[in-house]
Amino acid sequence: MAFDIDMIKEVYSKFPQRVNKAREIVGKPLTLSEKILYSHLWDGNPSKVYRRGKDYVDFAPDRIACQDATAQMALLQFMQAGKPKVAVPTTVHCDHLIQAKSGAAQDLKSALSSSNEVFHFLESVSDKYGIGFWKPGAGIIHQVVLENYAFPGGMMIGTDSHTVNAGGLGMVAIGVGGADAVDVMAGMAWELKFPKLIGVRLTGKLSGWTAPKDVILKVAEILTVKGGTGAIVEYFGPGAKSMSCTGKGTICNMGAEIGATTSTFGYDESMDRYLRATDRPDVADEANKIKEYLTADPEVYANPEQYFDQVIDINLDELMPLLNGPFTPDLATPVGTMRDKATKNDWPLKVEWGLIGSCTNSSYEDLSRAASIAQQALDKKLKTKAEFGINPGSEQVRYTAERDGILQVFEKLDAKIFTNACGPCIGQWARYEDPKNAPKNSIVHSFNRNFAKRADGNPNTHAFVASPEITAAIAIAGRLDFNPMTDKLINEDGVEVMLDEPTGWELPPKGFEVKDNGYLEPVEDGSGVVVKVDPSSERLQLLEPFVPIQDAELQGVKLLIKAFGKCTTDHISMAGPWLRFRGHLDNISNNTLIGAVNAFNKKTNFVKSQLDGEYGGVPDTQRAYKAQGIKTIVVGDHNYGEGSSREHAAMQPRFLGVAAVLVKSFARIHETNLKKQGMLALTFANENDYDLIKEDDTFNFVDIANFAPDTPLTIEVVHKDGSKDMIKANHTYNKAQIDWYREGSALNLIKKQNA
């Protein structure tokens, strides 16, 4: 029986009528993405055509999912909203605060000890406000959501960028900042610019060593890390129908790495099979009643160029396995062709670790296919050259895989089976005592991101993204340039052997099984639950509302840092060891922008203070400005804020006194997060003006009093020598978002409206 089946039935009862109305208004056949968007309008039945990439639209999501690192700040904010209970079904999943080190049993025990205060806070807040709670060790949020909550045609938002994983079950599932989630928890509409649409037509069929992961690795190569920004990617064609549901989830999951709003697939038989295998036949039965509405109209897939803004064709018969990286998820190299590129770029060819799992590739199918390669190493007497690490996606997957002997295959190769949690994928990997000074090396993993220091905190770790089966093969061979389709290995007897193609199961032949899935149902009436936060806690801190930035404060603004090149949310607010402070805004603010490269000296965490001319760390310099009541500005390059949905990357600068962020371009989620926290998120009207900014500059926002939609702001840049430049700064604020800014934050406005 599914969770929230009555809610799902209600969504489906309105779906055909709303889609029919949308089709009538739009005047043409609809994509699946459009059907879901138009059927989830806040005002109910569609009444107008929305322009893609232009119109801001209010939506009514069906549900919310939060992981423990971001849930802390989201729930701290929700506690200020004045509501007794969440307005839509919501869950919290404890998967980020468990560090991978010794193995599942010891690591979980350590996490329960070190983060008990946070877990207890999340559990009690969940109980009080009617939120479903998944305990530490229950699984990775996106795998658990796919197994329990995702449903075709639904709309959900989540406080993690890889919420998009649920597109594998035909949802429009979108990663957002916690402030967006708070809006919906409080019964408000959720605003999104109506997305553009990218269609990916998949022909042929995957076979041999090629896996669903290779589809998204190829798409990432084509679109790059920002090519999907502002768009939904919709996959279709015979190749799409031939894939498993969890394979579709893998593809949608890594859509976050191309900047896409989300990705999705039309409802098909693989989704029906997965729903029934995960004990949700009631959802499958309801979906089948309206299945023609849960995919695009036939004309769309027959002539996609007429209905999508961009169409990409990929022939799965010709697609080869890929290795993407290092340091960026869109740098693709066909397996077996790495030697020359690695040698030219001085990438270590020796591979030290192969890591399988994360929210991207931790399904039963993924583990079974990788285990088929690992079993060959045992059968063919091969000594593995690299170490193995395995993160099952959920307790249900782990229990079933152990029952069926899959995990034991890895253990016979001395693999470490880590907790059902994120672990190395998000920097929660205690690999080194001193990561900053750790040696240069290469690893291969089936995760989604491979930014510098992402996995283990070592800036010298070159991480390459691959499918679970290719990860297993390369770990066995121990070399980046290994090609399992052509290369031979020497076994313990000195005999040349080759690895056979991987095999596996889409779903467990004996069905899924679990003794304790780790779920706690909230009490019916949470009014008597008391949520306590110790004022002296280092981990948790109750929030104080942000004070609106006054126009007068935007004169004499000082430059904090001009960031050079890639500046992701990992650079703005690092994860790893800093995850422990995600519920304490003051403490976590000590990592603000410490990973950003200063354009003037190419160093990190080393900026000039205009108060005394001395150089120091970014947070220390900013705190000194704050003490003097001086507002600052951050200047950045393209795709600023790429990566995770973490709103801390917006809240921390705001808390410390940064008033504006001026960049060449933004990643979608980060731009929204800045707006929600009452800051100015601006882009250069002329990108070359980035080069005008000097280290000792002062900024005057000359027309901020006239801040209005569709009207650029004028900024006077005063240089140290007294010379001046006038630059234009564009923005995408609408009237409601300007109200957020004027009130100090979106949350301030919610509280005012609820008063």
Structural class assignment: alpha/beta
Largest sheet: 7 strands, mixed, barrel
- What low-confidence regions span 5 or more consecutive residues with pLDDT below 50? none
Q: Can you tell me the CATH superfamily of the largest domain?
A: Aconitase, domain 3
Shape: globular
Count of runs of 4 or more consecutive helical residues? 25
Euclidean distance between termini CA atoms: 39 Å
Classified by CATH, the class of the largest domain is Alpha Beta
Q: Indicate how many domains the architecture comprises.
A: 3
Percentage of residues in DSSP E strands: 15-25%
Going by CATH, the architecture of the largest domain would be: 2-Layer Sandwich
CATH-defined fold name of the largest domain: Aconitase, domain 3
Main β-sheet, spatial strand arrangement: 22-25-26-27-30-29-28
Binned, the helix content reads 25-40%
Mean pLDDT: 96
The multimeric state of the shown protein is: single chain
The number of distinct β-strands equals 30
What value does the Rg take, in angstroms? 25 Å
